[in-house]
Amino acid sequence: MNAVRGIFSDDSRGIQLNRLYRVFGKTVAVRDVTFHVPAGSVFGYIGPNGAGKTTSMRVLATLDLPTFGDAFVDGFSVIHDPELVRRRLGFMPDAFGTYRDVSCAEYLDFFARAYGLVGRQRSQRLDWVTDFTGIRGMRDKPIAGLSKGMKQRLCLGRALIHDPSVLILDEPAAGLDPRARIELRKMIGNLAADAKTVLISSHILTELAEMCDRVGIIEQGQLLATGTVEEIKQAQQHTRELTIRVIEQMPAAEAFLRDEENCESIVVDGALVRFEFHGDVADQARLVTQLVQQGCLIAEVTSHQKSLEDVFLHVTEGLVQ
Ligand SMILES: Nc1ncnc2c1ncn2[C@@H]1O[C@H](COP(=O)(O)OP(=O)(O)OP(=O)(O)O)[C@@H](O)[C@H]1O
Q1: Whether the CB of 52 sits within 6 Å of ligand 1
Q2: How far apart are CA 18 and CA 289, in angstroms?
Q3: Do 90 and 96 meet the contact criterion of CB atoms below 8 Å apart?
Q4: CA 80 to centroid of ligand 1, rounded, Å
Q5: Same domain, 216 and 244
Q6: Which of 175, 105, 104, 176 is nearest to 143 (CA)?
């Protein structure tokens, strides 16, 4: 991206990682990662433990510097314009320190003051944040007494207090019960509807699939795939489990399939033959035609698509550095 410092264009708004590297000694935590999150969209950053998600997010939040490359928030570089980046960005870390003896209202008020909000502007913003995150009823509660879900809401409130255009949320759903996850999803949907740019990380593809416009899958510091969940699924659909009902000439069908390089793990069970097939839909159609040409009478073909979790496991292979 040709981000011009301080000049806003539709292209430069949002988030851009540009050949980003972060090296710790012998560990390349982030390796040559480039992606763009257009303004007003939600991008899911998905990867196993130690993949490099938090490291990239910390660089974006100006808490760490790249070893090489750069990252931009609304066109401002984290290296050259960290102050301008911070004004535009709200960061919700995966673990956050709180002051046990202060109330939720005092906590949010402290951060509102730190961002320079004064008078009516501050009280209006505090009202908006407490309503948006649903913590109005707990304003006077000490933070020490909050549940995990309530602490997450408070932390999101803190990230929103200065009305940032870009939000970086590091595993906000971790440890939440199903109801709290649904509520978090609603809040993120509302932020997107309000034209915020959101980068949100998780270990779990299905958790983000519904709320993200696009996702990026990272492992061992490298971005392995980006696109919509459907695009990633399609790209990985080269292996499927096929079940074929052969009502005549099963021995010929079995012999034919065993000779085919793209058919594996063949199991015959009465009139059904099941196997792993490497190929796309057109390859599958050709295979069925060839079986018919062998004299096999085919009554039914069933293709079992991979689930999102299968795709994630296939893409990442579970490598941890
Ligand atoms: N300050 C540091 N010093 C040394 N190594 C680090 C440091 N921070 C991160 N790493 C290493 O960089 C790699 C990426 O870590 P990172 O925390 O970014 O992964 P992650 O994808 O956020 O993982 P998780 O899902 O477990 O939070 C890991 O191998 C980690 O040990």
Answers
A1: yes
A2: 48
A3: no
A4: 24
A5: no
A6: 104
DSSP 307: P
pLDDT in tens, 72-115: 999 999 999 999 999 999 999 987 776 778 999 999 999 999 99
Domain that includes residue 281, residue range: 237-305
182 within some domain: yes
Determine the average pLDDT of the residues in 203-225.
86
Overall domain count for the chain: 2
* pLDDT score of 5: 44
Element at 292 (helix H, strand E)? helix 281-293
Which residue type occupies 257?
L
CB 24 less than 6 A from any atom of ligand 1:
yes
ipTM for the predicted complex? 0.97
**Residue 266 near residue 254, CB atoms below 8 Å:** yes
Atom of ligand 1 minimally distant from the CA of 57:
18
CA distances from 235 to 30, 46, 273 (A): 24, 17, 26
Mean pLDDT score across all residues of the chain: 88
